[in-house]
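New here. Your pick:
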Amino acid sequence: MCQLLELGDASDPRSAIEDVGAVVSMKFTLVDRITDLVPGRRICTIKSLTLSEEYLDDHFRTFPVMPGVLMLECMAQSAGWLVRATEDFAHSLVLLAGARNVNYKSFITPGGVLRMEVDCKRMEANCSEFVGKGFCEDREMVKARIVLNHLNLADEKPALEAVDRELVVQTRAQFALIGGEPFVAAGAAS
């Protein structure tokens, strides 16, 4: 059962952004670079694992490996970029709603590069389904079917429209930093 998120003062967009950020923002950005993107169809991304990743202190100190749940989150973040690029950032939030048939095959250790290949199976206005696989070199490390929900805060609370706009601005800036813009521009030109 879903629990409604109670946000602070909706008249103060900065306060609402902080509240939303505290709840839905992933602490770890797990997509370092977009290497291929075909809006509406497919995205390929990479995540380089380094020993300085904060979560490796606890997972595990003498045998540091990327937690499986973060491999899945990397897949979800990759699919989220595909949704945003396809919809021209129409939604301020793209959230993991479910994962099925998740299969982990091996560990990724510092120095490894996780390459995600995510294919869109269905995209609707407020949700989408994907099949993804993660590889280290040519070895499959994880595969899953995932579902994402796409939404705007103003759909439930119109006073949060400014928060939606700010979140989209921030997300577009991050998209540019990880190399997504050339793929979208190339798609628009063709």
Q: What stands out?
A: Residues 13-189 form a domain with the Thiol Ester Dehydrase; Chain A fold (CATH 3.10.129.10). Confidence is low (pLDDT under 50) at residues 1-7. Residues 103 and 155 are 35 Å apart (CA to CA). The beta strands are 33-38, 42-48, 93-104, 113-123, 127-136, 139-151.
